[in-house]
Amino acid sequence: MGNIIAFVRDSLTNMVANLGTSRDKASATFYSMPMLSDEELLNAYRGAWLPRKIVDIPAFDSVRAWRDWQAKKPQIEAIEAEEKRLNVKGKILEAKIKARLWGGAALVIGTGEQDLTVPLNVERIGKGGLKYLTVMSRRQLTAGEVERDPASEWYGKPMLYQVSSAHGRQVEIHPSRLVIFNGNPAPDDEIVTSAYPGWGDSVLLSVVDAIKQADGTAANIASLVFEAKVNIIRVPDFMQNIGNAEYRAKILERYTLAATAKGINGDLLLDKEEEFEQKTASFATLPEVLMSFLQIVSGAADIPATRLLGQSPAGMNATGESDLRNYYDRLQAMQEVEMTPAMMRLDECIIRSGTGSRDADIYYEWAPLWGMSEKEKADVFKTKADAVRQLVGTSPGQEIIPREAVSDALVNALVEDGSLPGLDAAIGEYGKLSEQEPSDEELAAAAAAPAATSARPSSR
Question: Do 180 and 263 sit in the same domain of this protein?
Fold first, then answer.
């Protein structure tokens, strides 16, 4: 009996108000799976601005700032030249957009090998060994049987992918030769039924209801504009005579002429017994109603309204900066958690194809998505300079880290972030501090430092 009472209390059942009973109106509410065909997805993306921005904005922002390679200057130049040759940034953007729209897409890593069913061996990639990158959506790539061996790297993922060639034959590709991106990953492929097994869902699937409600609200408000001003004219014995065809024709002719005259000079000519009244609709609260629906879309898409709608933030002292920072932080996490692992083999191929070898010291970092103002850049520059002064001291012999080492590191940092344009060329012309001979003053100061130290009285 106690368990029954606890259950009733936990479920908030109220027999008088029908709350929690079969007669509760909310009991008929349940979640159903919205279905969007490929044609509907295409129409939404091509014909409506909200779906297109929801698909494009995170994809574009994730590659906008791209990444900074950390290596020797010739190595960086070779790798970046290889990325430009293959249009890696553009191909990743295309794949991300198609993955978000269709639910999945991939880049085929082309090395010139004929047998694509064997795993890709990145160790065999030499200089110029990366031949092409081809973007395919889940409409072109068919996922094969799922790997069920828990010891396999590809557990829970398709062991092979198939693509139809131009001659009608099926070409199989090993997943190691693909850079695979998904839209919204399926939570469990064993219970999720899909027309395209092995792939995720379109990002529009979970936000389509919010988009339709916002679009419907905007369309209704737009239609109300035509009813913003309504002229009302009362005509004596109108309903009694409306059945007469000749009367109807005269009425139409009469008020067409009256409307024409009013449009020309602003005066409306009426009979003494006719009455004229003008009613206007109020739109005072409609912008707030529409904005509420658009904010729901913004939350559903996980994109700040300031970025999705391009609007200024509302409210006292509101800047929208915190929303954008949170959004960029989430994208930064997505780059590290999703994009970096997916692009791992591609990056290894790019390094080897660009430099001809694999230097273990080569790596990259995703560039910050939040752009700093000129004042912020100046503050960062000053902070770096002050930190360097603390490390090297005010005179020779007081440095914590050798002055030459700090100088070389600072030059690399300033070249990478572009704080001092032309610094790289200037260093090439005049040389680094570590490459320069010390001056006579520096030699004299260095020689005097030990003598001064030995001349100090002992504290004992």
Answer: no
pLDDT digits over 150-173, tens only?
Answer: 999 888 889 999 997 666 778 999
Residues 396 and 381 placed together within one structural domain of the fold: yes
Let me know: does 82 contact 353? Beta carbons within 8 Å. yes
pLDDT at 457: 54
Q: Report d(CA 333, CA 325) in Å as an integer.
A: 12
Rounded to two decimals, what is the model's pTM? 0.75
Last residue of a domain, one of 365, 398, 431: 365
Task: Kindly state the helix (H) or strand (E) to which residue 364 belongs, with its residue range.
Answer: strand 363-366
In a domain, residue 20? The reply is: no
Is 288 within a domain?
Answer: yes
Residue 170 DSSP label: E
Our count of domains for the chain comes to 3
- Structure tokens that stand for 399 in this block: 């440095």
Q: What gap in Å lies between CA 386 and CA 19, rounded to an integer?
A: 67
Span 76-126, pLDDT tens digits: 999 999 999 999 999 999 999 999 999 999 999 999 998 999 999 999 999
CA distances from 115 to 120, 154, 170, 258, 324 (A): 10, 19, 13, 82, 46
- DSSP state, residue 168: S
Please answer whether residues 159 and 147 qualify as being in contact, where contact means their C-beta atoms are separated by less than 8 angstroms: yes
Which single residue is written with the structure tokens 């009367």?
A: 247
Structure token pair of residue 300: 């559903």
Q: What amino acid occupies position 396?
A: P
Rounded to an integer, what distance in angstroms lies between the CA atom of residue 406 and that of residue 429? 20
